[in-house]
Design brief:
The chain contains nine helices and eight strands. It is of the alpha+beta class and 206 residues long. The termini are far apart. It comes from Methylobacterium terricola.
Length: 206
């Protein structure tokens, strides 16, 4: 347990809560207040290892200072696709007010400290091969880091998301999509139910 009032970089812990993962496990997350007035939501491991030390304000400050150097953010025009993907990645994992935070930062998915700097992200990932490519985490239980990310087509990513979720259903181990098909339910419906905290058995009940 981390006590209220503990400081990690610019963050001060002000509370905590337990959240359930899609697989039914539970994990404690800490609510933090940032020096800038913002807020952050992080796991104890992210705070103790120094992976999360601000609400994202420091990264924004660094990005602003680099605008003239890399010319990617669109201050003088349209921002590049790589910069937009990088900014979206940070928002999903570090902004508690973000629409997708619950599915990323809220369940412990982090962005490595090296990628807090856009220049490092671009150096590691390179330009995306085409406008149909997006970033994918090869291991869905790990965060955004050089060894776990690659550019893939959106179609390939959609297939991977369906096939990577393995469950045990009716005594057999299979992909979630296959279990949904056997149960006579749309795979998307089962996924939404699991995200709401339903058990697998209940989620696969027509």
């Amino acid at each position: 347990m981390i006590e209220n009032g503990s400081r990690f970089g610019r963050l001060t812990v002000v509370g905590s809560e337990i959240r359930a993962h899609e697989n039914g496990s539970k994990r404690r997350f800490y609510v933090c207040r940032c020096e800038c007035g913002g807020s952050a939501f992080a796991a104890a491991s992210s705070l103790r290892t120094g992976n999360t030390t601000t609400c994202g304000c420091l990264q924004k400050e660094k990005a602003a200072a680099r605008l003239l150097r890399h010319g990617e953010s669109g201050a003088a025009g349209k921002r590049t696709a790589e910069y937009a993907i990088w900014a979206g990645m940070l928002s999903r994992c570090r902004n508690p007010q973000g629409k997708q935070f619950a599915d990323y930062g809220g369940r412990g998915i982090t962005v490595c400290e090296r990628w807090s700097d856009f220049s490092n992200f671009l150096a590691d990932m390179g330009r995306r091969p085409s406008q149909n490519h997006t970033i994918e985490r090869q291991n869905n239980d790990k965060g955004y880091e050089p060894d776990n990310c690659a550019w893939v087509t959106k179609a390939a990513q959609a297939r991977n998301k369906r096939s990577n979720v393995i469950v045990e259903y009716r005594g057999e181990t299979m992909a979630l999509a296959a279990a949904a098909e056997q149960a006579g339910i749309k795979a998307n419906t089962v996924t939404v139910r699991l995200r709401r905290g339903w058990t697998l058995e209940r989620a696969l009940t027509p």
